[in-house]
Every structure is written in C-alpha cells, then in structure tokens.
Amino acid sequence: MPFNTTKGTRATAIILFAAVMLHPALAWAHCDDDTIDVVSPNGDLVILYSGETYNVDSGDEVTAAGWMENEDVLVCGDVMINRDESGERVGISPH
Hints:
- This protein is α+β, with helices and mostly antiparallel strands.
- The protein has a domain at 31-94.
- The protein has helices at residues 7-22, 24-27, 61-65; strands at 32-39, 45-48, 53-56, 72-76, 79-82, 88-94.
- A six-stranded antiparallel β-barrel has the order 1-2-3-6-5-4.
- The longest helix is centred in the first third of the chain and has 16 residues, at 7-22.
- The chain is elongated and about 55 Å long.
C-alpha cells in the first residue's frame, strides 16, 4: 500500500520544517565565536583576535564604529553579531 499524506499533514510538515530552520539557535549553529581586536575609527574594518579581518558593509559602518576591542562577536557567514552590544549586527565580507 503506497504512503498517502493529506494536505493537512503536508502543511504541518512544512511548518515544522520552517520553524526548525528559522529558529535563532539553529541559525547560529554555523557561526564562529571570536573577539574584537581592532575596529577602524570609521568602522569600515574589524580585525578579530583570530587574525580574521572583515570589511563592514557601508550602511553598517556607523554601528561597527561604536564597537570596542575585547567585545565578543559571532561571525555567521556575511554577518557579524556583537554579543556585548545587545546583539547588534553588521554585514561583512572578508578583507
């Protein structure tokens, strides 16, 4: 007998899948913890203790300029999240 699903079961499965994929804790699963070493005065460049250097997206430079050395961050692909500044985030690209 073939497997038969109803529309309701299919919709429930889609909703559960979306909830798991969009959950913040799971979204950060592929992030790297690091600590800020240097932020350029205008906020366009962030250097981390690991030695990684990132360019900050032009629209986010003002936010990054307010970040300080020794603050903990998460690097999640093209986003940096400052854990010490209430989760402020900026767009980044490798330098």
